[in-house]
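Ops channel
N.P.: pipeline sanity check, posting one input/output pair.
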């Protein structure tokens, strides 16, 4: 149960001039800021994560710090209607990543996310927290960004494999763009129930298709509206040698999102 977010970076430069008629020293260029901070407030019509519906309409505030190739942030989910019992109410995700540039079209991103569910009922088999390192490769070809990614949840004991494709079409007359996004993934987790004996495993597949339009309000702020349809399929859970049971959280839903971000 994870999430993932926006990366916004600003570079401010100033160029000094030298008089050709005097021996004055050249003005130094203003240094780019050592780090950037971006605060984002989002509202979503459903909280869907890897094909599972973890909440109804929700607030999703976040804050992210970027410093060079390093990024760290805190993301949260706060449902306010049609809550899914014990799923993500609330959820706080602390994440970090480091990008290694290979060339103009290729980079590798290593990262990790700590998921915290402070109200999760541990006696009912839920975990209060999980930890998931990851590695991803970003490769751009013909303006399409392809991102295969592998996660491994150290608490739930299992991997998730995911492939994302992104493509953007500029709409200059409207001052925006259409950012298309497609995703497929599969996971298997071998210890999804806290204190389960024998252990309970879960597995399933998911996919997503979405589009978003960002509008630059000021130099520091941006409004983004989007829609995505996502679905979980072939999702089951099984304890020991018992028969498998369908995961009732794995459904198909359309998600409308509106977010406002401010960088400083």
């Amino acid at each position: 149960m994870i999430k993932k977010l926006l990366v916004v970076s600003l570079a401010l430069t100033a160029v000094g001039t030298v008089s050709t008629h005097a021996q004055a020293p050249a003005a130094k260029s203003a240094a780019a800021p050592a780090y950037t901070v971006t605060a984002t407030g989002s509202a979503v019509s459903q909280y869907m994560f890897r094909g599972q519906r973890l909440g109804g309409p929700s607030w999703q505030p976040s804050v992210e710090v970027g410093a060079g190739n390093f990024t760290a942030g805190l993301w949260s989910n706060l449902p306010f209607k049609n809550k899914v019992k014990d799923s993500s109410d609330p959820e706080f995700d602390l994440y970090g990543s480091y990008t290694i540039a290979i060339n103009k079209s290729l980079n590798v991103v290593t990262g990790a996310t700590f998921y915290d569910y402070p109200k999760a009922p541990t006696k009912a088999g839920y975990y209060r927290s999980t930890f998931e390192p990851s590695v991803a490769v970003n490769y751009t070809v013909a303006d399409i960004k392809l991102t295969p990614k592998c996660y491994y949840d150290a608490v739930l004991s299992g991997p998730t494999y995911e492939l994302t494709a992104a493509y953007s079409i500029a709409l200059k007359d409207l001052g925006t763009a259409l950012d298309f996004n497609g995703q497929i993934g599969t996971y298997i987790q071998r210890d999804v129930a806290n204190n389960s004996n024998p252990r309970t495993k879960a597995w399933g597949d998911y996919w997503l298709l979405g589009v978003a339009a960002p509008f630059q309000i000021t130099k520091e702020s941006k409004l983004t509206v989007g829609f995505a349809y996502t679905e979980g399929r072939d999702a089951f859970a099984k304890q020991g040698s018992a028969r498998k049971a369908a995961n009732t959280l794995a459904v198909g839903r359309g998600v409308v999102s509106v977010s406002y971000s401010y960088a400083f």
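N.P.: looks fine end to end. The chain has one domain: 36-263.
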